[in-house]
């Protein structure tokens, strides 16, 4: 039970047919919520921390220190993952700060540049035993593309193969998924996922997990997805709980801690729901 390179968790998940959820966290309460719930369920889990979330917490070393301190009293298998780093320097900073995984997101660049930068991140990260996630195709926002994402830049299997050759440990695929609340039920492109999974032998990653129906997530897991990112649903649970409390009480009398506790309680329901969808409860040693 401990902090792992993310790859260790994903290889095990892929071999056994489940996925490990990565929950975006931006503060102490979110980290407590995710790690405590994972420990209760004996489920492996990933703390996904975006550079913006790191900055909010006071920088990458602070984020790592909070995560490690919270996990210390718990029996939990987890990884600390940098979500969407768009420069090599950002990834290096996270690696040096103790993250056990980094995502280098060069998906907005031409494939040659994306591959060159990904290879550089792999060279450095692997020297530290740190996992690397890459991305091809652009996983945008739900409000940019609409529910059916007709104009999205989907993952091209040739480019997926090209990026996998850089030595990345897992690959984020754009197959009709997007970040944020979907405005209608998404329809993942399983034809594309099947082709990518046939040609790329590393675990695949599904971003934009909030709101993807259970049957589609589980079908994606059968086609090589071993990690699913969930951000919006957890953030919303925290904000909604705080807003409801403010609406129902005299704000002047509300202790700040009551807002945090309400968020943790509401967030734990979201964590349980996505753990169930990912079929990862009870999988920790
Ligand atoms: P959602 O916010 O749509 O759940 O996506 C999170 C994500 O993919 C973070 O990288």
CATH topology tier name = TIM Barrel
Q: What is the 3D form?
A: globular
- Kindly estimate the percentage of residues that lie in beta strands according to DSSP: 5-15%
Uncertain runs = none
Q: Give the strand line-up of the largest sheet.
A: 1-2-3-4-5-6-7-8
User: Structural class of the helix and strand makeup?
Assistant: alpha/beta
Task: Count the beta strands.
Answer: 8
Bound small molecules, which ones?
1,3-dihydroxyacetonephosphate
Q: From N to C, what is the helix and strand string?
A: HEHEHHEHEHEHHEHEHEHH
Structural domain tally: 1
- The N- and C-terminal alpha carbons lie at a distance of 7 Å
Superfamily (CATH H level) name: Aldolase class I
Largest sheet: 8 strands, parallel, barrel
Instruction: Report the total helices.
Output: 12
Question: What's the Cα radius of gyration?
Answer: 18 Å
Helix content: 40-55%
The average pLDDT value, as a whole number, equals 95
CATH architecture title: Alpha-Beta Barrel
Using the coordinates above, name the CATH class: Alpha Beta
